[in-house]
Amino acid sequence: YSPVFKLLLTRYNHEKYQPYIDLGIGIALVSDTKIDNRNLSSAFLFEDRISAGLTYDVWDFYIRYMHYSNAGLQTPNEGIDIYLLGFNYTF
Fold it and tell me: CATH code at 78?
């Protein structure tokens, strides 16, 4: 679960598009503590995320960075980083 706070960049607002930045921090529960060669040491993890995006009419385009780790509560704490490029269509 990760609540996300969205900052609309209203200075650059237009009739059809809206740029934004969002930030979130929360918790995650994973079923496997080893992903590829990464040892997460715990099924209970913390999630950090940051995104930048542009909503255009019914489309949403974004780039996102997410980090999962156990915040040093157990060793090793190798964590995992995820980079996303995505889009959504609202209908």
Answer: 2.40.160.20
Of residues 22, 48, 60, 67, which has the active-site annotation?
67
Convert 22-41 to b/e letters by CB count within 10 Å (16 or more is b). bebeeeeeeeeeeeeeeebb
Distance CA(72)–CA(12), nearest Å, equals 40
Domain total of the chain = 1
Provide the whole-model pTM: 0.85
Tell me whether residue 14 is one of the annotated catalytic residues. no
d(C-alpha 48, C-alpha 11), whole Å: 26
Q: What is the pLDDT of residues 68-82, one digit of tens each?
A: 999 999 999 899 999
| Containing structural domain, residue 28 | 4-89
Q: How far apart are CA 17 and CA 7, in angstroms?
A: 14
81 in active site: yes
